[in-house]
Please model this.
Amino acid sequence: MDELILYTREKCPLCDKAKELLDGEFSFREVDIHSDDALIEKYGLMIPVLEYRGEAIQYGNLDLKDLRNRLMDV
Model:
């Protein structure tokens, strides 16, 4: 499976919730949007953002059931 990337930032309760939701279910790489100005511009108001194959597939409150279904169809 291709890599899941979770874009987050510090002091973000939704980001913490997303990490807890994904942990143990999926392997993912976390990227702090504050590591790159372009990421702040792109995702600043949407985080957390889950990216798969270069596409933002979920943001805000992640839906684990929808995510499982989506990744099974790939």
In short: The chain has one domain: 4-72. The chain is about 35% helix and 25% strand. Helices lie at 13-22, 37-43, 64-72. The domain at 4-72 is CATH 3.40.30.10 (Glutaredoxin).
